[in-house]
Amino acid sequence: MARDAVSKGGRGLHYALLLGLAAYTTSHTFNVLRNTPFAAITLQQTGAQLQASLARAVNAEATPERLAILIDNAVTNTDREMADALIALADARDLTLPSDVLERHSALVDRLDNPFNRATDCVACMWDFDNCQSISQALWCKGPVILTPVDDVFVLTQAGIDAATGQEVDQLDVTLAVVGLGATGLVLVSGGSSYIVKAGAGALKVAKGMGKLPPALLRTLREAADVPVNWGRVGDLTIGRAAVGDVVDMTRIAPLGRMAGDFGQIVTRTSPADGIRLLAHVDNGADMARVARVTDAVGVDAPRTFEVLGKSRVFRIAARLSDDVFAAITGILLLAGQWAALLGGWAAQFGLRVLRRSLR
Q1: Mind telling me which residue stretches traverse the membrane in this protein (predicted)?
Q2: Which residues of 8-30 are buried (b: 16+ CB within 10 A; e: fewer)?
Q3: How far apart, in whole angstroms, are the C-alpha atoms of residue 82 and residue 76?
Q4: CA distance 86 to 65
Q5: Co-location of 110 and 136 in the same domain
Q6: Whole-structure pTM over 0.90, yes or no?
């Protein structure tokens, strides 16, 4: 009898502890969920969390050997900005780079900074995109026109003449010009701001002219730009007498407006040159939105982040759940496990009593 009493007392203490722990977990979990309801839980990492995650990954990957290879590739491709960014990363981490890599970088800088070379190269770049040696050069030499409404008006005027005479018209050029001129009205159906949409559309024109649009992205943009154009109102749009909706269907052009808006965010958070460079990692509208989110977190460090880690790894890190979600899931699982153990123990004890009575 004494042994049974001790046994019952032990089981009672055991269940009392389980009950107390379950009650505490229940109270704590409900308090967390009450203060952060499901509607307010951020599924994705916050900007600060994403920035920290990407910084850790870059620091782990950016060895002197890895950076030397990337810098050498940038120098070979006359991509001075990327080479400069990677060297700055090495300097920030006190990494020693091979002297031959630094010498090749210095030679590239000297050649590009030569005043005579800069002037003659810029004239050649202004004449034809194919002569532009870098994205920055294209923006400096051709950007003052292409990134303004002046080029949009020229493109639409020339396209109207070509359409009237039966000549081939590049629908993507036309639609980007329409988006640039009519950004104020377009933001009502695509979101964003008119400035950001204008910046994105203009930078996309430069990227297209330089051949910097990946094939998959070019197809996506052409599909989004494949909308009927009311050529009779194009001239009125160029002089402000017609709205975008008078020239194209606003709902059909909205996807292109969203991509231009996302790209505009990328450009404003980095630079036009870096934004165009980041298009190498974009195949569709979803990719554009992902890159925009990364640039929102890391800003001007986005190009070198993608260069060091690669597109797939950056996107995997960006897709991780936030700390809010992990806390909620962990609390719910712990709560369920504790109550299951408690109720399971009671059920087993009750079943054992019933079995004993039936055997008497």
Answers
A1: 325-352
A2: eeeeeeeeeebeeebeebeeebe
A3: 11
A4: 12
A5: no
A6: no
Q: What is the DSSP string of 23-81?
A: HHHHHHHHHHHHHS-GGG--SBPPHHHHHHHHHHHHHHH--HHHHHHHHHHHHHTT-HH
List the alpha helices (DSSP H) in 167-322. Answer: 171-181, 183-190, 194-210, 215-225, 231-238, 244-247, 250-269, 272-278, 285-298, 302-309, 311-318
pLDDT in tens, 173-212: 999 998 888 764 444 444 556 788 888 999 999 999 889 9
Do 174 and 277 have their domain in common?
A: yes
Task: Determine the angle formed by the axes of helices 250-269 and 171-181, rounding to 10 degrees.
Answer: 80
Predicted pLDDT of residue 26 = 61
Domain containing 93 equals 47-116
Q: Are residues 138 and 170 in the same domain?
A: yes
In contact, 135 and 212? CB cutoff 8 Å: yes
